[in-house]
């Protein structure tokens, strides 16, 4: 059939780029249609105004052991890993504003009974998420009928354990444990090889390495492996219409139309509402798409003259039960004199922070950092030289959020384990970091999902 592309990919994030590359390498024609004026999706690396290196507005962390796809690209493109700093103490802020430091790898200085309860609940979550039976019936539907918070309380979680789990939940999805299903959280924890590894900043953990050149270099590098003619930017999609059993028409808002045999959809599910599907997506997929949602998840990156927190014996990792910052990490690159703390504003605390004007937002964070690291506002303000803020809550093409959408109770229990990630609709295939059971929400998960979607499409093209 003349002028028909084998596969059209909607979205040039990591999952879309990987899918397109696999299609291209298999000898099939492919085109990527991207709404933004750049590739990379939720990888967004921005150079500091003073030229001292890059900071990550979007995805930031990788590791070199169990995230083999993303690490392979880091090596292939000659990118420079930066080991996440874990030398020193972690800062902790209680709900009343009391702060203290404790050694990395140990527990905060709470009462013994509280620590025992936190450890018991953490180990319970760990064992449950690593047990394959958890995700099979009859457990699957039962877990999806409860919020993560209710499930924890039923397991005996006390106040401190709930506060700790709230930190996990907010740091993972920007939502509170009372907003998402227990099954949804446990699936995320399983994908990171357990809740301990998911949260860990050391070797093998989810936050072990950063990339000096910026993670968007990975997206840019993959794009360069494709013919430039197969990537069309600034091309938002308006409709996907099945015109024949093996033929689709994909039309953009600017009037550009592609005829294609298969369509790989590589955008977050909250952005599906911007596309008219004819015929409509299957009913169960529509229920998922309309139910899944983002929390509030904002990065506020503070740039400093010097890493003042290290003089206090702190590694830069901090957590707070009070807010507005839920947690922060040292995202410095010392070789570039690029000293920074990346602060995460999440859930209701993040929404209240966003309602402030810009100077009040800045001061709220700087006051909190002064308390967390025991130096006071004046020291932090003196060292502060500027900030960078993520724009994902205002990003239409991301579906107005980050890092990935999560479901409340009663949505995914009807799917079998892995079904949502594997499900297709005739010649439509759904990929992205939310559609994977491995490293969901991470770059590695996006790449694995893209490879899976490409394999499905290639198999069907051979039929």
UniProtKB/TrEMBL annotation:
<keyword id="KW-0560">Oxidoreductase</keyword>
<comment type="similarity">
    <text>Belongs to the flavin monoamine oxidase family.</text>
</comment>
<feature type="binding site">
    <location>
        <position position="15"/>
    </location>
    <ligand>
        <name>FAD</name>
    </ligand>
</feature>
<keyword id="KW-0285">Flavoprotein</keyword>
<dbReference type="InterPro" id="IPR036188">
    <property type="entry name" value="FAD/NAD-bd_sf"/>
</dbReference>
<keyword id="KW-0274">FAD</keyword>
<dbReference type="GO" id="GO:0097621">
    <property type="term" value="F:monoamine oxidase activity"/>
</dbReference>
<protein>
    <recommendedName>
        <fullName>Amine oxidase</fullName>
        <ecNumber>1.4.3.-</ecNumber>
    </recommendedName>
</protein>
<feature type="binding site">
    <location>
        <begin position="34"/>
        <end position="35"/>
    </location>
    <ligand>
        <name>FAD</name>
    </ligand>
</feature>
<feature type="binding site">
    <location>
        <position position="434"/>
    </location>
    <ligand>
        <name>FAD</name>
    </ligand>
</feature>
<feature type="binding site">
    <location>
        <position position="344"/>
    </location>
    <ligand>
        <name>substrate</name>
    </ligand>
</feature>
<dbReference type="InterPro" id="IPR050703">
    <property type="entry name" value="Flavin_MAO"/>
</dbReference>
<feature type="domain" description="Amine oxidase">
    <location>
        <begin position="14"/>
        <end position="457"/>
    </location>
</feature>
<dbReference type="InterPro" id="IPR001613">
    <property type="entry name" value="Flavin_amine_oxidase"/>
</dbReference>
<dbReference type="InterPro" id="IPR002937">
    <property type="entry name" value="Amino_oxidase"/>
</dbReference>
<dbReference type="Pfam" id="PF01593">
    <property type="entry name" value="Amino_oxidase"/>
</dbReference>
């Amino acid at each position: 059939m003349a002028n028909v592309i084998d596969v059209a990919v909607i979205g040039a994030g990591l999952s879309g780029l990987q899918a397109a590359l696999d299609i291209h390498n298999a000898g099939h024609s492919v085109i990527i249609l991207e709404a933004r004026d750049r590739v990379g999706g939720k990888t967004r690396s921005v150079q500091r105004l003073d030229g001292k290196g890059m900071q990550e507005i979007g995805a930031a962390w990788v590791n070199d052991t169990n995230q083999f796809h993303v690490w392979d690209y880091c090596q292939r493109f000659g990118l420079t890993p930066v080991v996440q700093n874990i030398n020193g103490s972690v800062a902790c802020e209680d709900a009343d504003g009391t702060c203290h430091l404790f050694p990395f790898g140990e527990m905060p200085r709470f009462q013994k009974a509280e620590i025992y309860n936190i450890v018991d609940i953490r180990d319970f979550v760990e064992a449950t998420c690593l047990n394959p039976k958890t995700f099979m019936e009859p457990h699957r539907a039962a877990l999806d009928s409860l919020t993560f918070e209710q499930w924890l309380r039923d397991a005996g979680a006390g106040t401190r354990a709930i506060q700790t789990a709230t930190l996990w939940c907010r740091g993972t999805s920007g939502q509170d444990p009372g907003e998402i299903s227990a099954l949804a959280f446990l699936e995320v924890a399983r994908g990171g090889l357990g809740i301990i590894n998911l949260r860990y900043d050391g070797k093998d953990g989810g936050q072990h390495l950063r990339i000096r050149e910026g993670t968007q270099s990975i997206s840019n590098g993959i794009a360069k492996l494709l013919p430039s003619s197969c990537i069309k930017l600034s091309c938002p999609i308006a409709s996907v219409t099945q015109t024949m059993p093996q033929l689709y028409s994909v039309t953009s808002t600017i009037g550009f139309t592609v005829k294609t045999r298969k369509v790989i959809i590589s955008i977050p599910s909250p952005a599906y509402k911007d596309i008219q599907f004819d015929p409509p997506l299957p009913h169960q997929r529509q229920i998922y798409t309309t139910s899944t949602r983002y929390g509030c998840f904002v990065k506020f990156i503070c740039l400093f003259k010097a890493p003042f927190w290290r003089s206090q014996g702190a590694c830069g990792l901090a957590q707070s039960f009070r807010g507005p910052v839920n947690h922060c990490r040292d995202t410095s690159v010392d070789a570039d004199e690029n000293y920074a703390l990346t602060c995460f504003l999440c859930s209701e605390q993040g929404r209240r922070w966003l309602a402030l004007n810009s100077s009040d937002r800045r001061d709220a964070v700087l006051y909190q950092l002064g308390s967390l690291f025991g130096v006071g506002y004046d020291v932090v303000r003196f060292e502060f030289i500027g900030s960078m803020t993520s724009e994902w809550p205002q990003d239409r093409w991301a579906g107005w959020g980050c890092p990935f959408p999560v479901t409340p109770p009663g949505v995914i229990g009807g799917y079998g384990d892995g079904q949502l990630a594997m499900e297709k609709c005739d010649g439509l295939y759904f990929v992205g970091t939310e559609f994977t059971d491995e490293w969901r929400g991470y770059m590695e998960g996006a790449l694995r999902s893209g490879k899976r979607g490409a394999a499905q499409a290639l198999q069907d093209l051979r039929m």
